[in-house]
Amino acid sequence: MNIHEYQGKEILKSFGVAIQEGIVAETPNQAILAAKDLQAQTGTSWWVVKAQIHAGGRGKGGGVKLAKSLDDVQAKSEDILGMNLVTHQTGPQGKLVRKVLIAQDVYYPGETETDEYYMSVLLNRQTGRNIIMYSTEGGMDIEEVADKTPELIFKEEVDPGLGLQPFQARKIAFNLGLSGNAFKEMTRFVSALYKAYVATDSSMFEINPVLKTSDNKILAVDAKVDLDDNALFKHPDYAAMRDIEEEDPSETEAAKSNLNFVKLDGNVGCMVNGAGLAMATMDIIKLSGGEPANFLDVGGGANAETVEAGLKIILNDPNVKAILINIFGGIVRCDRVAQGVVEAYKKIGEINVPIIVRLQGTNAEGGKKIIDDSGLKVFSAITLKEAADLVQEIVK
Ligand code: GDP
Ligand code: MN
């Protein structure tokens, strides 16, 4: 689950990670109050107004602006709140900005001695260990750094039995070229960050930039925190940070019906039982000349309700030109699934896209008969080859 920068920073701070302080606001008025509060707390007289959306690249897109007076805070907040922010991560349609973070300016006016670093903590699935990835090339697009100058990205792997060792934190500070107080600050920063990552059951932290201020403090200026959905039950306070408005509405709808759904950009919707079969089905769609419009795993108990919920979500997508339902009847019987499809179809009413149902396994023939006899615009297939051929014909 993704959360906003301001929420991520709140979590980091609670673990002793030094952050650029800020207060979230939903209106220009709240923004001014926030700016005044920050001034009282930190002494700052310049602020940054930062759009809060679940996407990076906000700076380049015009969603992060420096304000040099309270009037300026109001003006910049008015600009950013309600704007449709387009970044390389939002897609061309952009995202509506509903909140701004009013943060203290930590790049002190006139100073040039600041430095930006990149740091992330994530799981290396190949070794099964957490790694800390870091670079002197902070503040920019890390994918570009990885592409052009991979030698400038360092990785520190952590032994799960031992945890992050003090010598590793020192090595990171050293590789970042730090000395004196900044060196000490960085070792503290790294240790606290790693502790927070483990304790929050996160799947990724990305802090870009980590800032060395002109007075040698090390601060998290940005925070992308991705919490592991499977561990949220342990952290009700983090689960409450979910911002439904930032998530894809069809995915939210699917989650309510316990469906594993991921929205994609193609033209063939698919509904499958089992994640492996779902991926194989997406391959088949591609091979037959279509592009999958989604990933949808209805799980082990495909019945009329789940089929109906799944169909509705797929049909909401105007790009969908055909739907492929691919069910293997292992525990679930194919005739039951076929009955479910027919019932769901009748319940939803007008469906203008052709549906191809491929049933294999227990009672597959019986299932095919139910579909064929239904008189609905549903094509049945038993083998994957037949299903793929049907998709190909329709997509053409
Ligand atoms: P992102 O563009 O979505 O990654 O948002 P960031 O939080 O990383 O902010 C983008 C950029 O805004 C940073 O790389 C900084 O250069 C700049 N920025 C952030 N905070 C401050 C600040 O306090 N003062 C100034 N002058 N610039 C800032
Ligand atoms: Mn950033």
Give a written overview of the molecule.
With 396 residues, the chain is α+β, with helices and mostly antiparallel strands. It has 3 domains: 15-105, ATP-grasp fold, A domain (Dna Ligase, domain 1); 110-246, ATP-grasp fold, B domain (D-amino Acid Aminotransferase, Chain A, domain 1, 2-Layer Sandwich), CATH 3.30.470.20; 247-395, Succinyl-CoA synthetase domains (Rossmann fold). Helix content is 38%, strand content 24%. The protein is built from 14 helices and 18 strands. The chain has helices at 5-14, 28-42, 58-61, 70-80, 142-148, 166-175, 180-199, 236-239, 249-256, 275-287, 304-315, 334-348, 364-373, 384-395, and strands at 22-25, 47-51, 64-67, 84-85, 95-96, 100-104, 115-124, 129-135, 153-157, 202-212, 218-220, 224-227, 260-263, 268-272, 294-297, 322-329, 355-361, 378-381. The strands form 5 sheets. Strands 7, 8, 9, 10, 11 and 12 form a 6-stranded antiparallel beta sheet that branches. Helix 2 packs across helix 4 (70-80), helix 6 (166-175) crosses helix 7 (180-199) and helix 11 (304-315) packs across helix 12 (334-348). It binds guanosine-5'-diphosphate and manganese (II) ion. Guanosine-5'-diphosphate binds at residues 20, 48, 50, 56-59, 64, 66, 103, 105-107, 139, 208-209, 221-222.
Secondary-structure blueprint:
Elements: H1 5-14, E1 22-25, H2 28-42, E2 47-51, H3 58-61, E3 64-67, H4 70-80, E4 84-85, E5 95-96, E6 100-104, E7 115-124, E8 129-135, H5 142-148, E9 153-157, H6 166-175, H7 180-199, E10 202-212, E11 218-220, E12 224-227, H8 236-239, H9 249-256, E13 260-263, E14 268-272, H10 275-287, E15 294-297, H11 304-315, E16 322-329, H12 334-348, E17 355-361, H13 364-373, E18 378-381, H14 384-395
Helix pairs in contact: 2-4, 6-7, 11-12, 12-13
The chain binds guanosine-5'-diphosphate and manganese (II) ion (MN).
Guanosine-5'-diphosphate binds at residues 20, 48, 50, 56-59, 64, 66, 103, 105-107, 139, 208-209, 221-222.
